[in-house]
Amino acid sequence: MSFNFLLDAFWAIVYGYQLKNVANENDAEDITIQTFAKAFNKIHTFNEEYQFSTWLIAISKNIHQDILRKSKSSPVIKSSKADDEAYKVIDDAPSPEDTIITEQNLAKLLKDIKQLKPKYQEVINLRFFQELSYKEISEQLDEPMNNVKVKLLRAKKLLAEIIEKNKS
Questions:
Q1: CA 105 to chain CA centroid, nearest Å
Q2: Can you tell me the distance from the alpha carbon of 146 to that of 140, in angstroms, rounded to the nearest whole number?
Q3: CA end-to-end span of the chain
Q4: Are 73 and 87 in contact (CB under 8 A)?
Q5: Would you give the DSSP letter of residue 74?
Q6: Could you tell me the CA-to-CA distances from 125 to 25, 116, 132 in Å, in that order?
């Protein structure tokens, strides 16, 4: 089966499931794309005794639970006063050192992005730097939304390979 066929056939099922869970279109789209990316990386583990849609939903559910788990582990400390039950959130403002590191990492990332083909640079820029939705990107590029999703998925995979290669 081709990637586009599977996206077309099962996108609505997974996206609909996640939209009910997260009640946010962008989050539902992001989780759905992560689901398909993970499914295609693990396609060899699929058991044909089960329905493909059930397998995708299970992957999607696990991704969503991982996201929830990570968000619940945010640092919180109890107040030092015994009679005060209020919680204080640890100050997470970046230190000057953190700011410099972030700027250096961003510069490296931009350098890595420039190694991608222009069509991949464009979708990365529109999605992550201009923070456009898939629909907005689709309209701006005058391409079907599924093409945008596939192109973005491919761009992220290629970028990850470039980053990994540059580490060594």
A1: 19
A2: 14
A3: 35
A4: no
A5: -
A6: 20, 12, 9
Q: Which residues are CB-contacts of 150 (< 8 A; sequence separation ≥ 6)?
A: 3, 4, 7
68, 41, 54, 71: which is closest to 10 by C-alpha? 54
Question: Six-digit token pair at 90?
Answer: 């640890």
Coil vs helix vs strand at 78 = strand
Answer for the pair 75, 82: CB distance below 8 angstroms, yes or no.
no
The structural domains of the chain, ordered by start, are 1-91 (1.10.1740.10), 93-168 (1.10.10.10)
The CB density around residue 61, as the number of other CB atoms within 10 Å, is 16
Q: Is the pLDDT of residue 142 over 70?
A: yes
pLDDT-based confidence at residue 83 (cuts at 50, 70, 90):
very low
8 Å CB contact between 60 and 32: yes
Single-letter residue type at 11: W
Burial classification of residue 57, based on how many CB atoms lie within 10 Å of its CB (0-12 exposed, 13-18 middle, 19 or more buried): middle
> What is the DSSP code (8-state) at residue 125?
I
**pTM (two decimals):** 0.48
